Amino acid sequence: MLTLEHQSAEDFRDTPYGRQLLSGFRCLLFAPGLEREFRRYLDRQARLAQCLGACLLLAVVGGYLYVERTLFAYSDPRWLLELTVLRLLQMVPGVAVLVITVLHSRVRVIANQLFPLLLVMVGAIAARIDIQYEVVQPEMAFRYGAGLLIVCSFFFLGITFWRALASAAAIILLDLIIASMILSSADMRVHWISVSYYVLLLVIGAVSRYVHEYSQREQFLVRKLLGWVAEHDAMSGLANRRSFDTALKQTLLQARRDRQPVALLLLDLDNFKAYNDNLGHPAGDALIRQFSEVLASFSRRPMDLAARVGGEEFALLLLNCDAQAAQVIAGQVLAALAERAIAHPASAQGPHVTASIGVAAWRHGQSAEQLYQAADAALYHAKQAGKNCYAAA
Ligand SMILES: Nc1nc2c(ncn2[C@@H]2O[C@H](COP(=O)(O)OP(=O)(O)OP(=O)(O)O)[C@@H](O)[C@H]2O)c(=O)[nH]1
Question: What is the pLDDT of residue 2?
């Protein structure tokens, strides 16, 4: 039986979120663009935990260092010196994470790639210290450090499953390498108990993390899909009137700040009622979808927006586009529609579907409503001028 999510995903298979929900993500990996978005989302969610984790690391390691300096000050000064260096090195990632937190988000994205490496570094040092304790003071070899970091790599810190698994496995591997270099073969046999404990923690952590991340990914996709539904017209896949109104205001703010031109094209299919009456409503819907495809192909730059603003009314918002360029684009839209040669059995303009376009270039000081009204008035003139043409405000 299909779940509700699957039915929604089926309806929205044209969106990256719907496609991903349908194709599944058992290996806990999305398509590249979506994967980057998910990692940013995970990082945002884990930011507080990362900071708290860094503070905890500094406090705990600092505490250990303080106690160890009083414990070994006279008994083993050489080991104390090495231990101090190791503890200070363990504290470096904590400081690094706190510094990264206050940095620009671009730096954070790069820094997050290094996050698992920092974790491995702290874990390997913890393993090294525990191994030394096994040699010099077996009663103090608690084996907490590396074990804790294996668990932490799977939880709280916003590291994805595969990276966490690689980090945890690297800590165990480094532990084995260091142990084989330091321990005698008799001690090594005892050390395998620590290794089996680490492996157990890895397995428990990996299984729990897999289940948790799977539902995190599902929630992420469903949430994104809901956002997409709120901003888009379900039939055409173009932006809906609500998100168009928001985008228009934002675009004008940006244009005012950067002193850039803005153009608005309002487009209306000609004789659409007659098309519906002759071929039926479903054919009318199919025409809306075909015209939307044509229009979407003219929304080429990141700030361009193609929207369905009414039944058979559309808008094309173009930032950094002046009046002249906008008229060229209006002509190209009409040509692209003519090229499709979609038969219209009841059009006074000819055998094929046509459209009319109103073009308005934004004037400084003009509000979003005034720009829209100007484009609407131009569209009215295009209709009056015999349709299948564009008119400029
Ligand atoms: N199939 C379909 N028809 C729609 C939809 N939304 C609006 N319409 C129809 O679009 C038609 C618009 O008719 P009019 O406003 O008279 O426009 P027109 O026939 O294109 O006339 P001109 O614009 O002057 O060329 C109406 O018959 C609406 O029922 C829709 O989502 N699907």
Answer: 42
Of all protein residues, the one whose alpha carbon is nearest to atom 31 of ligand 1 is 311
Rounded to the nearest angstrom, the distance between the alpha carbon of 272 and the centre of ligand 1 is: 5
Residue 281 CA, closest ligand 1 atom number: 1
**Interval 153-163 mean pLDDT:** 91
**Domain extents in the chain:** 4-230, 241-392
Q: Is the CB of 272 under 6 A from ligand 1?
A: yes
271 close to ligand 1 (CB < 6 Angstrom): yes
Q: Is 285 in the pocket of ligand 1 (CB under 6 A)?
A: yes
Q: Among residues 174, 166, 129, 124, which one has the least CA distance to residue 149?
A: 124
Continuous segment of H or E residues that includes residue 330: helix 323-340
pTM, two decimal places? 0.75
Does the model's ipTM exceed the 0.85 cut? yes
131-141 burial code (b ≥16 CB/10 A, e <16):
bbbbeeeeeeb
Quick one: which H or E segment has residue 307? strand 305-308
Distances (CA, A) of 386 to 202, 383, 389, 390: 73, 6, 8, 10
Cβ 284 under 6 angstroms from ligand 1 = yes
CATH of 241-392, one of 3.40.50.300, 3.30.70.270, 3.20.20.140, 3.90.1150.10: 3.30.70.270
